[in-house]
Each structure stands twice: as C-alpha cells, then as structure tokens.
Write a structure and sequence with these properties.
Shape of chain B: elongated
CATH architecture of the largest domain in chain B: 3-Layer(aba) Sandwich
CATH architecture of chain A: Alpha-Beta Barrel
Largest interface: A-B, 38 and 30 residues
Helix content of chain B: 25-40%
Radius of gyration of chain A: 18 Å
Distance between the termini of chain A: 17 Å
Largest sheet of chain A: 8 strands, parallel, barrel
CATH class of chain A: Alpha Beta
Strand content of chain B: 5-15%
CATH superfamily of the largest domain in chain B: Response regulator
Number of domains of chain B: 2
Shape of chain A: globular
Structural class of chain B: alpha/beta
CATH class of the largest domain in chain B: Alpha Beta
Strand order of the largest sheet of chain A: 1-2-3-4-5-6-7-8
Number of helices of chain A: 11
Strand content of chain A: 5-15%
Number of strands of chain A: 8
Distance between the termini of chain B: 26 Å
Structural class of chain A: alpha/beta
CATH topology of chain A: TIM Barrel
Strand order of the largest sheet of chain B: 3-2-4-5
CATH topology of the largest domain in chain B: Rossmann fold
Helix content of chain A: 40-55%
Oligomer: heterodimer
Number of strands of chain B: 6
Number of domains of chain A: 1
Order of helices and strands of chain B: EHEHHEHHEHEEHHHHH
Chain lengths: 291, 225
C-alpha cells in the first residue's frame, strides 16, 4: 500500500531518513534501506542535508523505488530556481516518485560549500503552490503541461519551536494550500508536542513525529547548542550520561526513543526516524514501543 | 549609499602591468562617506602604487563617479595627464569603476570591493536595508523588509532554523521573520502574516529596463559622450 493510502486508512505509519552518499558509491545507502525496509513504510531521501554536498535526492529516490520500496523526495528551495525545481519535479514524477516533502533548506553558509549562491527563488510555501499547479496540469507560469503529476505533498514543522506562534501560522498557510502529511522536527519533549497539537486548530493533516536516537550525552549537548530548534531536556541527557558502555548507551537511547514514541502516539499518525547513521536502532525502537 | 572598501593593496598591484603609468580616481560621494574614497583613498593608493614602482601621472577626486557627464568634465580639464595615463585605478563602487572605464576608454582597475547599499546603513550599522527588488512588500510585513532582514529572503514566515528569536546563520543574529511577526502583532495585523504572496518577479531586481534608462540625465550623459 502506498503512503497516501496508509494515511488515508488511518494506519500508523513509519518513515525513515535515507541519506544519499557523499560520493558516487550508492551501495551502502541502498544496503541500509534494504535492511530497514521490513520495518519502514517509506524512506525520506534528504536533499543535501545541512547544505553538505551529496548525491541528489531524486537519484536515490529512483533507486529505492526500483528496489520496490517507497521513497519520499525531500526538496529544498536552497539550490534551484523555479525552473530547476519544476524540471526536477517533473523528472521525479517520470521516475515513479510520488511523495514530496517540501522544505526551506539550510543556508549554504552552514555546509561544506559556504561560498555557494543561496538561491531561495521560491520559499517552501510557494513551492507547495507550485506542486499543486503541476498536479493540476499547469506550470508556475500558467502554461499547460502534457499530462499532470499527482504528487502527495508534505510539509515540515518544528513542534517545539520557541516562540511557536509564527511557525504555527506558517503551517496553517501551508495547510490551506494543500498538504497531505506533515513530518516534524525531532521531538524530545512529548508534553511540548501535545501542547503544539492542542494549538493546531483547523490543521487536520496526518502528522509523523520526528525521532533522532541519541548516541551520547555529548551529542545531545551538541544539538542543544548548534542545531536550531532542537532541545533535549536535561533529564534525558542525565540518563545518557549515566550509561557507561557503548552497549548501555545504545540500550538507553532505544528506551528513551520508545518512551517518546509511546507518549506521542495518541496524538499523531506516525513516526519519522532520522537515525543519523544509527539505522540499526530503528527496528529495536519500533519493537520496544510496540508499533 | 553604496558601501565599498579598498581591496588589499597586493590585489590592486597584481592587476597592473610592470611600469604602467597610473591615474588614480577616487569618488567623493558614497565611497568617501564610507571611508573608501576621496582624498584619503588617493593618498593610500598613490603611496601604494609608487611603492609598487608604477609612476602615478595624475590623481583626482570627483564628487560622484556615477555621473559620467561630471567625469568627462573633470577629466577634460587635465587632458594631458589623462592622455599620458595607461591605466586608471578607481576607488569607488562598481558603478564608478564602470563609468570611468566608459568615459576614458582605457584599462580600469577597481581599487575597491562594493559590499552593499541602502541609505546610511553603511555608516551606522542599522537594519533598514533595501534590496531594490522592484516589488515592495513592506505594507504587508510591518515595514520590515523580508528580503534583507532574512538571509534567505523568505516571503512567508520563519524557516525551521529560527529558534528563540535567533537566525540559524550565526549566534545573536535576530530572526527577521520573528521581528516581522512581532511587529505585525503590535500593529494588530497578524492577518497579513498568513497571506499568500506569489513568487517575486526577479527581473525587477536584476535589470533596469531600457524605458527606465531614458531619463533626461541619461540622455545628457550620452550627449556628453
């Protein structure tokens, strides 16, 4: 069953990030996808995450599709103007890719080619409108297209952003333009997520909550300091600190994630894993959380 | 106001051929106001060029190097030295460098890098900058320009990198869209925050159409040439 059907049927869905390789060898990325496939319904292929150069998202999406799994094309506004975005979308559709997660994209200054031109010809809200235009058989300029796409469009939000209101307002605008699913930034504080859900009035879109397994207390502190919008509560960092061996750390991390998953489950329709190299934790979390 | 700064001297000298006769021109407009033009730049460049062993045959401050008629007038009064010069070194914004190149028809070396523009912000580090986008949206954004206040120039609210009012670009940098949100809230106009704005017509920012160029001043400059 496709992602859109699963969500329409009220199924609890699991998605997971798959990062294209930093290079030409796509083998290990596909191997990771194959291993996770029994537990994951769809794979989000990142689009030069953190503005670090990697293989293009659509290429790995197409390869994942060829393996018989379902890809979600992540598309940022950072690197392509409106012509290139539309061209890539049409190409992705031809390759059988039907899910798109629309993102603003990190600024190039944060990545490994900081001298690059930040494009942002369109923003994420406008890109949603462009995809809706392609779905209706027209391009952004209003020209008629030969055939139309039928993309299932998703948007992102940070439920624990502070202050939350501007982000909520932007999400409402995205929902008005037509989105089929939401994947969130990582959530470590389930109560903050519940507060966010209660403020969502009017936005009725299936939501998948972001989970990143912590590798160590150090990683948690680093994210708190350097990753905008991520906040790991002190008590979680303390739990990670008390774990002394790598096995123990992994176990604690899996438990923390499973606890968050159980806590948010009644308020969402799925989980979105961003394992950052710890793909092998995902099945354990899924199992322990009982989903 | 266009804000410029002098290039490293080595870079300027690297653009000159050995022993070339140099004429230094400095702008007395924006460049002087922002510290990279006028008499100060002339003195810096003259001594640097001499140290680099290039004869300086002339030097001149011109009030506004963006005015080609004025450049023509001023240079015509020192015609003999201008004729002797093999290369012009120009302390000005990019407009001034191009204007000198057009008027003299000689090789022209920029002594400056043009950094940005917009009112007096070059002199006082203020925030109200204009990106001359040609499609002003300030009525909808509480009088704060999203194109210049947000490094991504977004038109619809903050990106995911905005946290506790800060931008993802560098610590301490305020998120522009948080500022716009707060201002609209103060004004009681948050309805504007959730308004859809179509993609910008980028042509407006990238080029000046021919019709716009045909002003009286423009014609005068052509006539002067």
């Amino acid at each position: 069953m496709r992602l859109r059907e699963r969500l329409a049927h009220g199924e609890f869905v699991i998605t997971c990030e798959a990062a294209p390789p930093k290079g030409a060898d796509v083998g290990p990325a596909l191997e990771a996808v194959r291993k996770l496939a029994p537990k994951v319904h769809a794979f989000n292929v990142t689009d030069l995450q953190s503005s670090v150069l990697r293989m293009s998202s659509w290429a790995l999406c197409a390869l994942i599709k060829r393996e018989g799994f379902e890809p979600i094309l992540q598309m940022t506004c950072r690197d392509r103007n409106r012509l290139a975005l539309q061209a890539d979308l049409l190409g992705a559709w031809a390759l059988g890719i039907e899910n798109v997660l629309v993102l603003t994209g990190d600024h190039p200054v944060l990545g490994d080619h900081p001298q690059a031109m930040p494009v942002f010809d369109l923003d994420s809200v406008q890109l949603i409108a462009v995809i809706q235009a392609l779905n209706s058989g027209r391009d952004l300029a209003g020209n008629e297209l030969s055939g139309r796409t039928d993309f299932f469009v998703g948007a992102a939000v940070n439920p624990t952003a502070e202050p939350l209101e501007p982000h909520l307002a932007k999400l409402r605008l995205k929902a008005k333009l037509g989105i089929g699913f939401i994947q969130t930034q990582v959530v470590y504080d389930p109560q903050a997520f519940v507060r966010f859900v209660q403020k969502l009035d009017g936005v009725r879109v299936p939501m998948l909550v972001g989970i990143i397994p912590l590798k160590s207390a150090k990683m948690a502190r680093f994210m708190n300091e350097h990753i905008a919008g991520v906040h790991v509560p002190e008590e979680i960092i303390k739990v990670m600190e008390r774990a002394k061996t790598p096995e123990e750390r992994r176990q604690r991390s899996v438990e923390i994630c499973a606890r968050i998953v159980r806590a948010v489950r009644p308020y969402c329709q799925g989980i979105h894993f961003m394992p950052m190299g710890w793909e092998d934790c995902v099945p354990d979390i899924v199992e322990l959380a009982g989903i | 106001m266009l804000v410029s700064e002098l290039k490293p001297i080595g870079e300027i000298l690297g653009s000159l051929r050995p022993g070339e006769r140099v004429f230094v021109v400095a702008c007395g407009g924006c460049a002087q106001t922002t510290g990279a033009g006028g008499e100060k730049a002339i003195q810096t460049l003259k001594s640097a060029v001499l140290e680099g062993e290039h004869p300086v045959v002339g030097a001149l401050e011109i009030p506004f190097l963006c005015n080609k008629a004025l450049i023509g007038l001023k240079l015509s009064r020192v015609r003999t030295t201008v004729d002797k010069a093999e290369v012009f070194v120009v302390a000005s914004c990019g407009v001034g460098v191009q204007a000198v190149a057009t008027v003299t028809g000689k090789p022209t070396v920029p002594a400056s890098n043009t950094l940005y523009y917009g009112a007096f912000q070059g002199v006082w580090p203020a925030e109200e900058r204009c990106a001359r986008c040609g499609e002003c949206v300030l009525a909808e954004t509480g009088g704060i320009c999203p194109l210049t206040v947000c490094p991504k120039g977004l038109l619809h609210g903050p990106c995911g990198g905005s946290y506790q009012g800060e931008c993802e670009l560098e610590p301490g940098r305020p998120c522009g869209w948080q500022k716009i949100y707060d201002r609209l809230a103060e004004l009681g106009r948050l309805d504007l925050f959730e308004k859809f704005r179509p993609p910008k017509d980028r042509r407006r920012a990238l080029d000046v159409p021919l019709s716009r160029r045909r002003t009286t001043l423009w014609d005068l400059e052509f006539w002067e040439e």
